[in-house]
Specification:
This protein is 64% helix and 4% strand. The protein has helices at residues 2-24, 26-31, 35-44, 47-57, 65-71, 78-90; strands at 99-100, 103-104.
Length: 110
């Protein structure tokens, strides 16, 4: 029986540690916010922090200044980065109407 319990603990412990890590990681905390609370938190972030979050969330996206320059596309402004982060987080929330404040952003390509 003790061996069986040890196997369960050995199997579950990495998952438990990962969940605890997610709970303390600011990037995951943003995913739990919505609407005005999310917008207010994103407004407090710097452009570099927003770009860092976008790169973490969407590894296939082109968000860093280096990637934009290399691909010959304009750098994202802070407002564009904030909008992109808001859109990516809110589209995961059921019932989102597509608006960030009074601006419709659901289908905007950023």
């Amino acid at each position: 029986m003790e061996s069986f319990i040890k196997q369960i603990i050995d199997h579950q412990l990495p998952k438990i540690l990962a969940m605890e890590s997610h709970r303390n990681d600011w990037r995951y905390q943003l995913l739990g916010l919505k609407d005005k609370m999310l917008f207010d938190q994103l407004k407090l972030m710097t452009r570099q922090e927003l770009l860092g979050w976008l790169q973490w969330y969407d590894k296939a996206g082109t968000f860093s200044d280096h990637d934009c320059i290399r691909r010959g596309i304009p750098l994202l402004t802070k407002v564009q980065a904030l909008t992109a982060a808001y859109q990516r987080i809110m589209r995961e929330h059921e019932g989102w109407d597509g608006y960030m404040g009074t601006e419709y952003i659901r289908n905007r390509i950023l």
